[in-house]
Design a protein that fits this description.
The protein is α/β, with parallel strands linked by helices. About 50% of the residues lie in helices and about 15% in strands. A 5-stranded parallel sheet has the order 2-3-1-4-5, sandwiched between helices. Helix 2 (about 25-45) packs parallel to helix 11 (about 225-250) and helix 7 (about 130-150) crosses helix 10 (about 195-210). The radius of gyration is 26 Å and the shape is elongated.
Length: about 425
C-alpha cells in the first residue's frame, strides 16, 4: 500500500522547499553530519543488514556531485558505486536484472546505485511514450525485487533530486558557460531539458507507484546545493539507523521452528517406478536423442538463445550420470556445469539467489545446475538451515526468478530424478 496517495503532478510540489544556509552554519552541520554518518556506518558493519542508495533525479540536479560527496563522507571500504552504464556482452546478453544482482551489497555494507532500475524505466517511458499500464507493470517488477531484498535484510533508500524547469535551465546554462564547471556537462543535457515536461510526468508516475511504506521515496529540492547536500546526508543517516534498529529487533526475536506440515498430495507417489528399457533400445534411443540435441544446441547458439538445465532429485538417483549423457551431446565450448553445495562464507553474505544469478549463461550458451535454488525449500528447509518464514517466501521468489529467465528468452528445463527409498538404499 502507498504510504500516502498523491496525484503524480502533485508529488514534486509537496517536497520541502530549499532554505538558504549560511556558509558557517553549513560547515557546522556538515561536520556533525559526517561524524554521525561514519559512526552509523561502523555500527551497520556489525549487522546482517545492508543498504542500497539509489540516486536519481532530473539533469542538472547534481546527482554526480552528491555521489562524489557520499564517497568522501563515508569510509570507502564499506561503500561501492554502480552506474549500470556498461552495456557490454556480459550484461546485454543476460536477463535484465542480472546486472543489479551483481551490484547488491554484502551484509553490513552499502552500495550507491546511479539511477538504478528507475533510470531505464523512466527513460524508456519517455522515449517510447509507453502507456500507464506499461509503467505500472515495470514499477511492480521493481517493487517485487525490492521486497525480495528487503525480506532478506537489504533495505533501499531512494532519493530523487529535483529542479523545476526554470532552475534546471539556469543550472545548465551556468554549467556550460563556467570554464571550471564545463567538464561536468553531458552531451544530452539540452535534449533532456526540452523533454522536461514528459520526463517529469513519467518520473512522477513511477515514483508515486513505487512510493511504499517499506521503501518510500525521499524527494529533495536541489535548487540550493548546501540544502541538497544536508538533506541527502540526513535522510541517509536516518535510514542507516533504521537498518541498525531492524537488526537489533531481529536479534531479540526468537528463531522460528521449521514448519513440517505435509502437502495434501504427494505427486512423487504417482511416478511409475516400474518403467524399464532393454539395453539395446536404450543405446539406440540415446544416440538418436544426443544427435538431435547436438544439432539443436548449435542452432540455439546461432540464434543466441540461452539455456538453463536444472537437475534435482535424491542422492544416488543418477543426477551426475544424466548430466554426463546430456553434455556428451554438447560441444564443450558451449556449456558450463555448476555443482551446488552448501553456501560458502561469502555466499552467506548475500540473498540466497545471488549465487544462482551469477553463473547464468550469456546468449546462446548453456548452464547446467547440479542441484539448484530449490535447495532453499529442500535441504535448507528439512535440516533447519532456513527459518520457516525464509523458505516459505522462497516459493514466490523462485517463481519470480524463473519468470525473469523465461521473459529474457531463456529455455529453462527442470528435471527431478526420482527413485524409491529401497532403490536408494540399494
Amino acid at each position: 500500500m502507498n504510504e500516502e496517495i498523491r496525484q503524480p503532478s502533485e508529488l514534486f510540489e509537496s517536497m520541502e522547499p530549499a532554505r538558504a544556509i549560511s556558509r558557517k552554519a553549513y560547515q557546522q552541520l556538515l561536520t556533525d553530519l559526517r561524524a554521525d554518518l561514519l559512526q552509523a556506518q561502523i555500527e551497520l558493519a556489525d549487522t546482517r543488514q545492508s543498504v542500497i542508495i539509489t540516486i536519481a533525479g532530473v539533469d542538472g540536479a547534481g546527482k554526480g556531485e552528491v555521489i562524489q560527496l557520499l564517497n568522501e563522507w563515508l569510509d570507502p571500504r564499506g561503500l561501492e558505486t554502480h552506474s549500470f552504464w556498461n552495456q557490454e556482452s556480459e550484461v546485454a546478453h543476460r536477463p535484465y536484472q542480472w546486472r543489479f544482482w551483481q551490484a547488491i551489497p554484502r551484509r553490513g555494507r552499502m552500495h550507491i546505485w546511479f539511477g538504478g532500475m528507475y533510470a531505464d524505466v523512466i527513460a524508456e517511458g519517455v522515449e517510447h511514450r509507453h502507456a500507464q499500464a506499461w509503467i505500472a507493470d515495470k514499477s511492480q517488477e521493481i517493487l517485487a525485487f525490492e521486497d525480495m531484498l528487503q525480506a532478506d535484510g537489504t533495505s533501499h533508500l531512494k532519493l530523487w533530486l529535483h529542479l523545476n524547469k526554470g532552475t534546471q535551465r539556469r543550472r545548465l546554462k551556468d554549467l556550460y558557460e563556467n570554464p571550471k564547471e564545463h567538464w561536468r556537462a553531458m552531451r544530452d543535457d539540452w535534449k533532456h531539458h526540452n523533454l522536461y515536461e514528459a520526463f517529469s510526468e513519467t518520473a512522477a508516475e513511477v515514483i508515486s507507484l513505487t512510493h511504499v511504506q517499506k521503501s518510500p521515496w525521499r524527494v529533495v529540492d536541489a535548487s540550493d546545493k548546501s540544502w541538497r547536500n544536508i538533506e541527502v546526508g540526513r535522510f541517509l543517516h536516518e535510514h542507516m539507523l533504521q537498518a541498525i534498529r531492524t537488526h537489533k529487533a531481529k536479534e531479540k526475536k526468537p528463531k522460528q521452528k521449521s514448519w513440517s506440515k505435509q502437502c495434501q498430495k504427494n505427486w512423487l507417489d504417482e511416478v511409475d517406478l516400474r518403467q524399464r528399457l532393454t539395453n539395446q533400445v536404450y543405446q539406440d534411443e540415446l544416440i538418436q536423442h544426443q544427435a538431435r540435441c547436438h544439432r539443436l544446441f548449435w542452432e540455439a547458439y546461432e540464434r543466441k538463445i540461452p539455456t538453463v538445465l536444472v537437475f534435482e532429485g535424491w542422492d544416488a538417483a543418477g543426477k551426475g550420470s544424466a548430466i554426463k549423457r546430456v553434455t556428451a551431446a554438447i560441444d564443450a565450448r558451449l556449456y558450463r556445469i555448476v555443482s551446488v553445495a552448501a553456501p560458502t562464507e561469502e555466499e552467506h553474505q548475500f540473498h540466497y539467489l545471488w549465487r544462482f544469478w551469477k553463473p547464468l549463461p550469456p546468449s546462446g550458451q548453456i548452464t547446467i545446475f547440479d542441484r539448484s535454488w530449490y535447495g532453499r525449500v529442500l535441504v535448507e528447509r528439512i535440516e533447519g538451515f532456513a527459518q520457516s518464514n525464509e523458505w516459505q517466501r522462497a516459493y514466490q521468489e523462485i517463481n519470480t526468478f524463473e519468470d525473469q529467465l523465461v521473459q529474457h528468452g531463456c529455455v529453462l528445463c527442470k528435471f527431478w530424478i526420482h527413485i524409491s527409498k529401497e532403490k536408494q538404499l540399494e
